[in-house]
Specification:
Number of domains: 2
Strand content: 25-35%
Radius of gyration: 27 Å
Helix content: 25-40%
Order of helices and strands: HEEHEHEEEHEEEH
CATH topology of the largest domain: Double Stranded RNA Binding Domain
Largest sheet: 3 strands, mixed
Oligomer: single chain
Strand order of the largest sheet: 1-2-3
Distance between the termini: 64 Å
């Protein structure tokens, strides 16, 4: 790079491939800031700044939307870095690729969330777990929703670790039954297990149809609490059932 008086980006891990720091504190004003700046420019989908171990910029790779002139993109990159960071970059070190098919990562993430939400018939609205006064029991109140309608159900059980999970799962099944106005769902069991060094809630839900019964099994990783995971596991177990029985 033919440079201005400050042509370097500080990056403590620049010797790694790609030169990007894994610790934001190690790159307070350099590579990551430059990449964020470039991806904020109109039409730029992603950008990567490659530095030498001394922090000098060796390459800048940009992915831009189709229809943009590569020369204009290069000029925009040069201008943005000079105006915002005071760094002058040799245009020969900027490479531009264009595509009509790739969306920005944020747009892809949002699309994935919306697609997943469209597949999920029942949404988990709320869970309230409370101890019952003057007793060794616990109550769980679960609120589920679908199609703009919400239903709530409360169940009680002994205040032990395992029974708290089962109580939350029973409340979720009860709320599901109210939501679909059916009496064909019942909790077979719920517990937490350790799988691959993670705690996972596992539930079994029985569906009754005529003389036949069917066991639906769902799982969810414990993150917020075992009780929350139990509700998510019920939704996981019944998602396909809900797709078939969703209210018209």
């Amino acid at each position: 790079m033919t440079a201005s008086p400050s042509p370097h980006f500080y990056d403590a891990s620049a010797s790694r491939p790609g030169g990007a720091s894994g610790d934001p504190a190690a790159d307070p004003w350099g590579v990551r800031r430059a990449e964020n700046l470039l991806t904020s420019l109109e039409g730029i989908l992603s950008a990567r700044v490659v530095t030498t171990p001394l922090g000098e910029v060796s390459e800048i790779h940009v992915l831009a939307q189709a229809g943009l002139s590569p020369k204009q993109v290069v000029r925009n990159v040069e201008s943005a870095l000079l105006a915002h960071l005071g760094v002058k970059i040799d245009h020969r070190k900027i490479s531009v690729a264009t595509t009509a098919d790739v969306k920005p990562l944020a747009a892809l993430d949002q699309h994935a969330v919306e697609h997943r939400a469209a597949q999920r018939v029942v949404l988990f609205e709320d869970l309230v777990v409370a101890t019952v006064p003057r007793s060794r029991r616990v109550s769980a109140t679960v609120t589920l929703a679908t199609g703009g309608r919400a239903e709530m159900a409360t169940e009680e059980g002994p205040d032990t670790a395992r029974n708290r999970v089962e109580t939350a799962a029973r409340a979720a099944v009860a709320a599901m039954s109210r939501l679909f106005d059916v009496q064909v769902l019942a909790l077979e069991g719920a517990q937490t297990v350790h799988v691959f060094d993670r705690q996972v809630a596992v539930v079994g839900v029985i569906t009754i149809g005529g003389r036949d019964t069917r066991l639906l099994v769902g799982t969810a990783e414990v993150r917020e609490s075992p009780e929350h995971a139990a509700v998510y596991a019920v939704l996981d177990a019944t998602n396909r059932w809900a797709l078939v029985h969703r209210p018209s």
